Amino acid sequence: MFTGRKLLIATQHGKERVMAPLLAEALGVVCSPTIGLDTDQLGTFTGEIERKDDPVTAARKKCMLAMDLCGGDLAVASEGSFGMHPVVFFSYADEEIVLMRDRLNDLEIVARETSTDTNFGGAVVCNDEQLLDFAGRHLFPSHALILRASKDDRETIVKGITDVDTLMRHFRQLCAVNDSAFVETDMRAMYNPTRLSFIEKVTKKLIEKVRSLCPRCSCPGFGSTQAIPGLACERCGWPTRSIQSYIYDCRRCGYREQREVSGREQPQYCDNCNP
User: Fold this and answer.
1) What are the CA-CA distances from residue 8 to residues 69, 91, 160 (Å)?
2) How confident is the model at residue 84 (pLDDT cuts 50, 70, 90)?
3) DSSP-assigned letter for residue 203
4) Is the Cβ–Cβ distance between 63 and 101 less than 8 Å?
5) How far apart are the first and last CA of the chain?
6) Measured between alpha carbons, how far is 240 from 232 in angstroms, rounded to an integer?
7) CA distance linking residue 76 with residue 2, whole number of Å
8) Neighbours of 51 (CB within 10 A)
9) Backbone angles phi and psi of 37, in degrees to 5
10) What pTM value is reported for the model?
11) Partners of 247 in the beta sheet?
């Protein structure tokens, strides 16, 4: 279905560096850049342009913009979201969506994963020591930083700072007016190797899903769409919160099957044995 076709990598932030080689080798596509594509129109991490769409919708729109701009019917895009982890308390997380849109065959395949391996963060800093401490803890200078007058400022923003001299110069300029500044991590992929590496991982997950064919109609993208809890405790047999089975769906023909998880859960994760 994909061999020999042009695949647009819908990004302006360098994601093609990790996505294109994987997709070309695995799917036999010819990856093409999207020169002139402005994905920032859908929203920016720093808030100058508000993000109005959920991550899947935003990734889909990136694909459609790329196809309209560059002429094609196959595109892939990613979208990242950062914030507190929904389960691991007091830990930041990066949720990445990688979506492939095939307009020719009216097919959409999505891979999603969440990781706590992120340098995401921000803080108000009032002096050189506080700034350099933040920088050191957030992997600077291999990972870029952003400075602005305050957390909610949308006017005075300096992005992509990757050296100490530039960092200190802009910090002192801001402090001369405000007595403090807000420093944050630059989460754009070309300035954040940790995020770029995670996008690579989720792209591999997308490839696995593309290769998963529906048992009935052989359509690519046959994957898990629902997780059902209730895996039995190995000690008491009580249903736990752990996943007991996964529901797999085909978006094309509607075929569905339930796949059970083998084994039982350890007593330490059972609400009956370990309330």
Assistant:
1) 10, 34, 25
2) confident
3) H
4) yes
5) 51
6) 6
7) 13
8) 14
9) -75, 130
10) 0.90
11) 226, 258
Helix (H, G, I), strand (E, B) or coil at 212: coil
Count other Cβ atoms within 10 Å, centred on residue 16: 20
Task: State the amino acid at position 77 in one-letter form.
Answer: A
The two tokens of residue 207 are 């490839």
C-alpha torsion sign, points 55, 111, 1, 108 = negative
In angstroms, the CA 59 to CA 65 distance is: 10
Instruction: For residue 270, give both structure tokens.
Output: 């059972």
Q: Yes or no: say if 58 and 42 are a contact pair by the CB < 8 Å rule.
A: yes
Q: Enter the tokens of residue 157.
A: 């923003």
Tell me the per-residue pLDDT of 94-153, one tens digit each, with 9 for 90 and over: 999 999 999 999 999 999 999 999 999 999 999 999 999 999 999 999 999 999 999 999
Q: Which two three-digit tokens encode residue 121?
A: 């963060």
Q: Angle 128-137/164-178 helices, nearest 10 degrees?
A: 140
- Is the predicted pLDDT of residue 72 greater than 90, yes or no? yes
Strands 145-148 and 181-185: antiparallel
Instruction: Quote the CA–CA distance of 131 and 227 in Å, as a whole number.
Output: 43
Distance CA 8, CA 137 (A): 36
